[in-house]
Amino acid sequence: MNNRPEPTNAIEIRFMLNGRETVARIDPAERLLDTLRYSLDMTGTKEGCAEGECGACTVLLDGVPVDSCLVPTYQVRGRDVRTVESLTPQELQPLLETGATQCGACTPGVAVTGCWLRRHPELLETHSVREVMAGNLCRCTGYDGIVEGVEAAMRGDGMKKKA
Amino acid sequence: MRALLPNSLKEAMAMITAEPSPPTPMAGATDLLVHWPVLGAARDRTYLDLSALRELRTIRWDNGRLTLGAMTTYWDVVRDDRIGKEFPLLVAAARQVGAIQIQARGTWAGNIANASPAADGVPVLMAYDATAELISPDGKTSEVALDRFYSGYKQMAMRKDQLITAIHLPRRAHSFGVFEKVGARRAQTITKVGVAAAHSDAGWRIVVNSVAPTIRRCRTLERFLDAGGSGKPAHRPDDLVPLLAPDISPIDDIRSTAAYRRTVLARLIYHHLRGRTPAIV
Questions:
Q1: pLDDT tens digits, residue range B158-186?
Q2: Do B36 and A136 touch (CB under 8 A)?
Q3: Which residue of A has its CA nearest to B45?
Q4: What residues in B contact A52, CB-CB < 8 Å?
Q5: Burial class (CB within 10 angstroms; exposed 0-12, middle 13-18, buried 19+) of B225
Q6: Domains of chain A from N-terminus onward
């Protein structure tokens, strides 16, 4: 999977990836997005704009959504990273049921941010679903399906059906 | 490219001293990674990663001041109820600087040091009379008022071997405060024209972004407001244009035009301040 040459000034870092202790030897110029996809075979995280605008590459860093295209990998040393691969099918069910996905390019990021909000309902005391999801751009479905899917997840709709 | 990875401020300062030329400090990396040197000559650069310096990720209330350690993120401030009550403009700006993915990474000190004329964090800090605390390689610290920090485009009262360690904000009773940015859309946008306005016993502060080479106070307009309009109050937005003119120099660029910026800035200020001061009726 990783056929890139060993960088001359490689750094070895350790961090938690989806709950597992992970060691990676990285080029200092590597972005977390690339390390996940090309060194660690975690290809669920997608590259969209590569400048922190579209949110397709969203992962949780110490429990908060960040754009992995804007994270130099060395910054996650000793920290906790969770990717879309850490989500369960049950968590994703509400997004499927409301038609919150079409071409799928934005979906991993939407799922990470949406499922994060579901685990932090207290955020809705100060934020709307749309404000929380503002960093995840979709160019296909429009946002109603996404917002409905997240709201259904907040109510526990999809979870109940599966349970 | 090289990355220096200190675990303490002391270690960071030692690394700066040991380098032939000062490395580029990095905090949340939201600006630096957009132009990340994956190829070519830029790979010769050396970065100093400050993200592991927990001692700088602090929020303290003491001596009549709020102190944000240099690694404090926008999201840290959004989630702090006490800051929301005493310094609501900080939260207002933090929520508009970018989406949560950006708020979670970007730091207030990084916004100061990146010195963008479109910075959204700096105007509210300046409206609250914030100061930046700097540390030099010899360990000595000093404070610079933000409204005297910028002298030109990306020109700062800070040497390349210094780091920002904290931001201090005096705690005052404010009778008015507003922050508004205008962009192509509401979220994830770079400001075309923006303003932070605040009033306290120290007087009016009108701080603007994206209309000059630096974030800056509109001191001519502030004097007019502090004087209550001197018997000649502004009756319409256009009356504010000549009062803003001495302190701004907007340009045409990819995001907007000088004329739009000049007009909209006057309208924003008129809209928000009308009836809040005898100077604007």
A1: 999 999 999 999 999 999 999 999 999 88
A2: no
A3: A29
A4: 30, 33-34, 98, 101-102
A5: buried
A6: 11-79 (3.10.20.30), 87-162 (1.10.150.120)
